[in-house]
Design a protein that fits this description.
7-stranded parallel sheet; globular; 12 strands; 333 residues; 16% strand; single chain; alpha/beta; 12 helices
Length: 333
């Protein structure tokens, strides 16, 4: 099988580095090369850079657009090193006879949900600021860091899917929160199964003391939290986002931080990634940003890497990878 395949690892900061056996498995299939591209690279240039590579292990960037597929030579597979696939044009991929597969949602469920709550608690308890005071030998200034408890609060969870349902469970059963769940794709029974009450978005915004953002990004919910939505929120609300940065209009949020409407914001994602040290969010002491590391646990990375390697192995055998987002007629086995 060696030499028959060329596999590109694109913009992944972790694949094969924590678990080198995943990389070894790919080398048994053929040539393997890692690439790092600007997140805004145009489709034609991306296709030219990846010429000859017939399998891709893809991160959250760059975007595999119709322009990419229009100029790309043979491409059997794009396997996402994650569960989201909003950076891949599925219709264009299907026309190009390219399979798109993702990691099973349960692999990331606990890791991402736990990080959503971890980051939320960090801003609510001012953990980073308190730590820095110790580093600066200012232990006696500890009274500056009186935070807020999460226990017993009214919590809103936007998106009660794989991650959001676990966030709802943690908030309800772990912190005794009243959990309000907004998800237009889930019915009342499904949402209640995770300890949440099904509500419309306006009710969640008006009543929640803390809001956890866990929705998948679609064309319909781009910038779903903008000026109008922020105006409906309580004063001094806390937000935590481990979903996608583009769910929030960043300029509108910056304004709310400036006027003090938002008590704290924790995010693992930005609309444009990678984020840089001059991002306006970093000008606020009540904001923390982590570099899209919610899935970065040893357990999660092992499962993710194993899935991507298995997808490539199955594709090399002419087998349909499991958790394929779409099926291509040429895969008959």
């Amino acid at each position: 099988m060696s030499g028959k395949n060329k596999i590109a690892i694109v913009n992944s900061s972790s694949f094969g580095k924590v678990f080198p056996n995943h990389l070894e498995r790919l080398h048994r299939l053929g040539e393997v090369k890692s690439f790092t591209f600007d997140g805004d690279i145009d489709g034609k240039t991306l296709a030219e850079e990846l010429k000859g590579f017939n399998m891709i292990i893809a991160s959250v960037t760059p975007f595999f657009t119709q322009d990419f597929f229009d100029h790309k030579d043979e491409l059997k597979l794009i396997t996402r090193h994650g569960i989201g696939y909003n950076n891949i044009d599925l219709e264009a991929a299907k026309k190009h006879n390219t399979i798109v597969s993702i990691v099973p949602a349960l692999i990331e469920r606990d890791a991402v949900a736990e990080n959503n709550i971890t980051n939320l608690l960090n801003v609510m308890r001012q953990t980073n600021l308190a730590y820095q005071s110790v580093v600066q030998d200012k232990w006696e200034k500890r009274a500056q860091f009186v935070g807020h408890a999460l226990g017993g609060k009214t919590a809103g969870v936007i998106g009660i899917g794989n991650i959001g349902s676990r966030v709802a469970e943690i908030l309800h059963y772990g912190f005794r929160c009243e959990v309000l769940g907004y998800d237009p794709n889930k019915d009342k029974v499904e949402i209640e199964a995770f300890g949440a009450k099904k509500v419309e978005l306006d009710e969640l915004l008006e009543k929640a003391d803390v809001i956890c953002i866990c929705a998948s990004l679609t064309d319909d919910n781009y910038h779903m939290l903008s000026k109008e939505e922020f105006s409906k929120m309580k004063d001094n609300v806390y937000l935590s986002n481990t979903a996608r940065g583009a769910l929030i209009e960043e300029d509108a949020l910056i304004h709310e931080l400036e006027v003090g409407k938002i008590a704290g914001f924790a995010t693992d994602v930005l609309e444009v990634e990678p984020g840089r040290a001059n991002h306006p969010f970093l000008g606020f002491e009540n904001v923390i940003i982590t570099p899209h590391t919610s899935a970065y646990t040893m357990e999660c990375l092992e499962g993710m890497g194993n899935k991507c390697a298995t997808d490539c192995e199955r594709s090399a055998e002419g087998l349909l990878p499991k958790r394929s987002v779409q099926k291509i007629s040429s895969y008959l086995k």
